[in-house]
Write a structure and sequence with these properties.
31% helix; 206 residues; alpha/beta; globular
């Protein structure tokens, strides 16, 4: 849930980039972090394992405006791609206000995309969250590679809810900010509907 800091007049929303290993989650965050002005972003934190990384940073977007007089700060996270790091996936997903599912467009990665999407559903349910209510967008990454699946085929396999979906080449930045803007708007739309309920002050440490 969004966290409110009354002293700084900021609402912090957490967006998690989810998906299989090497689908482009890290590349998305690196591209966004490099593009955001230094005075509007925190340092990127990397928790590395032998085969994958969890990244995190927060920033104040330039174009999202405010909610009830509060500025909106976004925290972006990635989850490890490998299934045997599921405990870390669950930990990173906890408290998420929105999710970007980054799919690899290569046909040989389709089963990994499906497994990771099923895992996202399971982990949200375990935390008592309904994926139908969680702001969620899809990104079909690596569109520059030869022989990738068509957008229609990816939609048929992964996008059964008709969610916003964006083709992307994260290494060049294509589709990266389109994806981020879409999930940010969904998160803020949901937040705007809930501002009449009591806001939860942010605890120390986040």
């Amino acid at each position: 849930m969004p966290l409110v800091n009354y002293s700084t007049r900021e609402i912090t929303c957490k967006i998690v980039y989810y998906g299989p290993g090497r689908s482009g989650k890290t590349t998305n965050l690196q591209y966004v972090h490099a593009a955001v002005p230094d005075d509007r972003k925190g340092a990127m934190v990397s928790l590395a394992t032998e085969t994958d990384r969890t990244l995190f940073f927060d920033f104040l977007p330039l174009d999202l405006g405010s909610v009830s007089g509060f500025r909106t700060r976004l925290q972006l996270y990635t989850v490890p791609g490998q299934v045997y790091y599921n405990a870390t996936r669950k930990l990173v997903l906890r408290g998420a206000d929105g999710v970007v599912f980054v799919a690899d467009s290569q046909p040989e990665q389709l089963e990994e995309n499906l497994e990771s999407l099923r895992n996202l559903h399971e982990n949200l349910l375990e935390q008592g969250l309904d994926i139908r209510e969680m702001p969620l967008v899809l990104q079909y990454n690596k569109r520059d590679l030869p022989g990738v699946l068509s957008i229609e085929a990816l939609d048929e396999a992964l996008n059964f809810r008709g969610l916003p979906a964006f083709p992307a080449v994260a290494v060049t930045g294509k589709g990266v900010f389109d994806t981020l803007r879409a999930i940010s708007e969904l998160v803020l739309r949901r937040l705007s509907r809930s501002v009449q309920r009591p806001l939860t002050p942010a605890p120390q440490g986040r």
